[in-house]
Fold:
Amino acid sequence: MILKMRKKCQLMLLALGLLMSNGTMLVSAQSATFVPASDKSYTISGQRGDFGTKNGFLTSTATPSAAGPKGKFAFVAYDEKLYLYSVADKMFMYRDKTPYRDTWCNVVLSNEIIEPIEITTTNNAYPYYLTSGDYVFNTYSGTQKGVCLSQWTKQDAGNLYKIEEAGDFDPAEALATLTDHFSTDATVTYNVRDVEGHLLETQTLKGKSGSVVTAVPADFVFAEVAKLKLMYAVLTIVGVVLIAAALLFFSNGMHHHYAEDKFFPACPKEYFADLLKAAGIEDEDLLDIIYNPERYPQRRSTETSGDIVKQSAVN
Structure:
């Protein structure tokens, strides 16, 4: 008896739910989103028509006179955003900022202006709802191209779609286009000094800056590594000075004891000059002798031409 009453209540609730929804399934946006495969192409179709491209625009068969053939599209992910890409045209898309009616705007193919899209999954038979910013992809026979981006946000037969796999896709060219579009060449030049302000080195770094930084050393943003760089430089310069002193001592001069070639301190000339100044020595000629590769390049010349006596530093 209790089971029969429970079943009757369940049927009554079900009937009430159907009446409240006018006999149709209620549509509600879910938190899940469509995650396309990077190496696949897709077709996009709605109850009113299929997406294609023609004469530089995204089209739909909702307006047959303006529509191109059913197209293949890729959803290319870049910098945590998704971009709609026409495989045949090798172009991305953006919203024409000049509406031709109310908020209706054509969707233009371009690699000069590129805008991201979002895809929301619903519980409808046509489950995908496509947007670009505050605008929705809507298909309607009254649009110029069969599809437009407008601010009609109510989910209906004109803006719910099926996205179905259509074949393989190589994303390399599309990703290269996005990288080139969103990245610009950048050059950063900075000086590295020790704790007393002495110049250790000048660094020039080149790379890409934009929404993504690629192929750039880790210290491209110098402010983030200034302290570590400074500590490393101080330790390095101490080692350089000690090594230079050891070479001078071992070779009894500034030339290699066997190869006869002049060797040079690994620290910058300016830093070495600061060290000499701190020790009370200011001698530009001495600095030139140490750092100028044209002066006394060999202790004993091994050249087969010229005056080997004049070319030898020992003389």
Summary: The two ends are 122 Å apart (CA to CA).
